[in-house]
Design goal:
The protein is an all-alpha fold and 95 residues long. The chain folds into 2 domains: 34 residues; 61 residues. It contains 2 helices and no strands. The N and C termini lie far apart (136 Å).
Length: 95
């Protein structure tokens, strides 16, 4: 009777270790990759840098668009100015 009790106690004792190791291995397999605080900080910084680069590229593209629009408007103004100069010259020649 004592032997059965000791064997039963020993089995329960060992089973706890077995379950704990199974639980750990399961958590390691299932859990997300563990990241150290330093890696998390630098990873966050790298992500922010990438986002900022994207924003900068968007702003550069918008600047190019605005430059092109202004260039087109300037060309129109220059052409109109030339026409006005020609009209002024014609009027002077008549007078």
């Amino acid at each position: 009777m004592i032997k059965i009790f000791l064997c039963g106690g020993l089995l329960i004792f060992l089973q706890n270790f077995s379950l704990a190791s199974d639980k750990r291995s399961f958590e390691e397999k299932v859990s997300v990759e563990q990241v150290s605080p330093e890696e998390e900080i630098f990873g966050g910084i790298e992500k922010e840098i990438k986002e900022l680069r994207k924003e900068i590229e968007k702003l550069r593209e918008r600047i190019r668009e605005i430059e092109n629009e202004l260039r087109e408007k300037l060309e129109i103004i220059i052409k109109q100015n030339e026409k006005i100069k020609q009209e002024i010259h014609k009027i002077k020649m008549r007078v």
